[in-house]
Design brief:
Largest sheet: 8 strands, mixed
CATH topology: Metal Binding Protein, Guanine Nucleotide Exchange Factor, Chain A
Distance between the termini: 33 Å
CATH class: Mainly Beta
Bound molecules: zinc ion
Strand order of the largest sheet: 6-7-8-9-4-3-10-12
Helix content: under 10%
Radius of gyration: 16 Å
Number of strands: 13
Order of helices and strands: EEEHEEEEEEEEEE
Strand content: 35-45%
Length: about 170
């Protein structure tokens, strides 16, 4: 579906335009996404690589090796203001995630699933009527996981601290 989605970083030096609707939009509660955003979770829209064009200042990137897959995730950020605009993936070279929070109109995309809910921080909630996955949407071998759907929103309750492996 043809759709234009514009966005950029906090200081405005990096801008982008996507020219197709995203394949999906996720809220990810994994510990990597919590760390990289410094927040409860990371909301990302996934696009085909060639449907997003960047303009303005070049981004810098940081390569992180995933504890789960052992492959690299590349974090792309503005070198002036530090905003994380995008992720790319060694595992899915044709995909680009765009940080939903950097979109000029974040409501132009619709969240399709919450993932890695098993490491969700307390204080947040999982919405009703949407696919919620304990871990990723599929196993590392590509086998689809079965999501849960809640009838009413579910608050994430505090729990004892523990080491997280995801
Ligand atoms: Zn910036
Ligand atoms: Zn994540």
């Amino acid at each position: 579906m043809s759709q234009t989605i514009d966005g950029g970083c906090l200081c405005g030096r990096v801008r982008y335009r996507a020219t197709q609707a995203p394949l999906r939009t996720l809220v990810c509660h994994c510990s990597f996404c919590q760390r990289v955003t410094g927040s409860l979770a990371y909301s990302e829209s996934l696009f085909s690589m060639d449907t997003v064009q960047f303009s303005g200042a070049p981004m810098r990137s940081y390569a992180h090796r995933s504890d789960t897959s052992g492959q690299q995730v590349f974090v792309h950020f503005c070198e002036s203001c530090g905003t994380t605009l995008s992720l790319t993936f060694e595992r899915w070279p044709d995909a680009r995630a765009i940080s939903r929070g950097t979109m000029d109109e974040p409501e132009d995309v619709e969240v399709t699933a919450h993932i890695w809910t098993r490491s969700a921080h307390s204080g947040g909630a999982l919405p009703a009527g949407i696919d919620c996955f304990d871990q990723a949407r599929a196993t590392l071998d590509g086998v689809a996981e079965t999501p849960r759907r809640f009838d009413v929103p579910v608050m994430i309750e505090p729990r004892a601290p523990r080491h997280q492996e995801d």
